[in-house]
Amino acid sequence: MEEKIIMDCHNHSNLSPDGENSPEDMVKRACELGITYYSLTDHLEINKFYDEEYLYEEPIKRGSEITPALAEKYADKIHMSYGIELGQPLQDMKLTERMLSSYKYDFIIGSLHMCDGWDDFYLLDYSKVSADMLMGLYFEEVLQMARWGEFDVLGHLTYPLRYITGENGIQIDMDKYLPIIKEIFSTLIKNDMGIEINTSGLRQKINKPLPDEYYVALYKELGGRILTVGSDAHRTADLGKGISECVMMAKRLGFDSLAFYKNRKPEFVKI
Ligand SMILES: [Zn+2]
Ligand SMILES: [Zn+2]
Q1: 242 is a domain residue
Q2: Which domain holds residue 243?
Q3: Which ligand minimizes its atom distance to the CA of 110?
Q4: Which ligand ends up closest to the CA of 120?
Q5: How many structural domains does the chain have?
Q6: What is the pLDDT along the chain (271 residues), one digit of tens a residue?
Q7: Counting ligands in written order, which one lies closest to the CA of residue 231?
Q8: What DSSP string runs through 234-246?
Q9: Considering every ligand atom, which ligand is closest to the CA of 11?
Q10: Which ligand is nearest to the CA of 16?
């Protein structure tokens, strides 16, 4: 018997270009793990939408149709909701607005994987570009996203560090970004939005959650109460990983509940 895992609200099926398993295999695995609250959150990368390699609309449409059916099929085992990870929403507002009004989502994670005009942090060559300059652009754009406010929780606040520090060993003086990070948190709080603890960093070289305890504590201190936790698994094998550890961290920081979204509304689940 594997340990009970309360939730996994960030993960990808093969409806994402980089996901391996079908939505049904993902929910079956979530049931096996005893996950109580589960959101499937496939990618909708607004700026890569028309990329020849991957057209996002068809899989999003399919996800919006099959997820309610799966939720019903597995209703006696798990609470399941339909989410998306909305990447770079401000980089094509017309498209973002159309996608948000065309399909029904339970939960929207707002993420920034690449700054406007730049490639994904994962793909950049840091011997040719200043990581520090990009961090500045990153937090500026995340702040704009928080002000825009049409998503539920901010995905992996410290995403660039996964690559800049984790993969490339470049240290960033994060203290100088503290004022803007505080502003991002305050804006999210004011707009009744939340943050996630993304456990994927625990499986990667950076070896800490995104964001780590320091920032989650800061969010709490500023009045943040909406918190979700997700593995960012791209295959069944990674589902639920690191969740228990991060739930313990949330408790230690004084959170007594986590949020699970249905119909874009948080339901607070005791931890
Ligand atoms: Zn992401
Ligand atoms: Zn993701």
Answers
A1: yes
A2: 8-270
A3: 1
A4: 1
A5: 1
A6: 446 799 999 999 999 999 999 999 999 999 999 999 999 999 999 998 876 667 899 999 999 999 999 999 999 999 999 999 999 999 999 999 999 999 999 999 999 999 999 999 999 999 999 999 999 999 999 999 999 999 999 999 999 999 999 999 999 999 999 999 999 999 999 999 999 999 999 999 999 999 999 999 999 999 999 999 999 999 999 999 999 999 999 999 999 999 999 999 999 999 9
A7: 2
A8: SSGGGTTTTHHHH
A9: 2
A10: 2
CA of 64 to the centre of ligand 2 (A): 17
The residues placing their C-beta within 5 Å of ligand 1, an ion, are 111
The CA 1 to ligand 1 mean position distance, Å, reads 30
Q: Starting from the CA of residue 234, give the closest ligand.
A: 2
Residues with CB under 5 A from ligand 2 (ion): 85, 232
Both structure tokens of 211:
């964001």
Question: 174: domain CATH number?
Answer: 3.20.20.140
75 within domain boundaries: yes
CB 185 within 8 A of CB 222: yes
Kindly write down the DSSP assignment for every residue of the chain, as one continuous string.
-PPP--EE--B--TTSTT--S-HHHHHHHHHHTT-SEEEEEEEEEGGGTT-TT---HHHHHHHHHHHHHHHHHTTTT-EEEEEEEEESGGGGHHHHHHHHHHS--SEEEEE-SS-TTS--TTT--TTTS-HHHHHHHHHHHHHHHHHH--SSEE--TTHHHIIIIIIT-----GGGGHHHHHHHHHHHHHTT-EEEEEGGGGGSTT-S-BS-HHHHHHHHHTT---EEEE--BSSGGGTTTTHHHHHHHHHHTT--EEEEEETTEEEEEE-
d(CA 5, ligand 1 centre) in Å = 21
- Residue 2 domain-assigned? no
Enumerate the β-bridge partners of residue 210: 198
